[in-house]
Amino acid sequence: MYGYRRTGGCTVKIAVVASLTVATGPVLAEELKLYNLAVGASVGSALVVNIVNADQAGLDLGWDDGKERARLLLNWSLPVQRTYGRVQVTTGLELALGSTNYTPEEQSMKTEEQPMANLTPLFDWSMAVGPGRAMLETGLGAAYLSSTTLGPDEYSTYWHFSQILGLGYVYRDWQLGWRYQHVSNGSIKKPNNGQNFHGLVLKYHY
After folding, report:
1. Taken in order 176, 180, 185, 191, is the CA torsion positive or negative?
2. Are 77 and 1 in contact (CB under 8 A)?
3. Distance between CA atoms of 32 and 44, rounded to whole angstroms?
4. What does R_g of the chain's alpha carbons equal in angstroms?
5. Helix (H, G, I), strand (E, B) or coil at 69
6. What is the pLDDT along the chain (206 residues), one digit of tens a residue?
7. What gap in Å lies between CA 131 and CA 178, rounded to an integer?
């Protein structure tokens, strides 16, 4: 997204991102099973060879009032770019695939899982700071939730709007940051409890 693209690259770095995405999962304390390793190896391999020709790949981990979420992120750069003095604005399309877990306070109740997907056009506002670039990201897109309830919350619809606001820093091939994301149906149908995730984002730039 910042005016450069490399084919090939550091396969070890990509494999680390893929392994973290699958191995950590929404519930970090969950026992690692063989199918986790199989899925992790397959996802890692796909990212190493960049089978989808993405410009960035990474993961985010988010938390929202008893909920934990882990997602795989894939970004493709869009041709729209602007420069305002020292500030550069780049655009991209982000696909996020993952799952949210809700763990009840009562141990006798089972953990609930909600797979989800996001497609979001992103605007990255960045400027050179030190050896890298500081950035502000914003985005407005669509989200699909696999269920209309999770724990005590009701969402009424499967399709939702998604708003993103984040801060980060890009150094060489790596981007690390904080992100807030709101997901709701805009009160098209009630109840509309919505989701408000705060969390960490790690991306690798190919």
Report:
1. positive
2. yes
3. 16
4. 17
5. strand
6. 554 444 445 445 545 545 545 444 544 444 556 777 887 788 888 888 888 999 999 999 999 988 999 999 999 999 999 999 999 999 999 999 999 999 888 777 789 999 999 999 999 999 999 999 999 999 999 999 999 999 999 999 999 999 999 999 999 999 999 999 999 999 999 999 999 999 999 999 99
7. 19
The residue type found at 92 is G
Q: Which domains does the chain have, with CATH numbers?
A: 11-205 (2.40.160.20)
CA neighbours closer than 13 Å in the CB half-sphere of residue 111: 15
Question: Could you give the CA distance from residue 42 to residue 205 in angstroms, rounded to a whole number?
Answer: 20
Residue 202's contacts (CB-CB under 8 Å, 6 or more residues apart) are 17, 20, 58, 59, 60, 174, 175, 176
Specify burial of residue 149 (Cβ count, 10 A radius: 0-12, 13-18, 19+): middle
The tokens for 144 are 């699909």
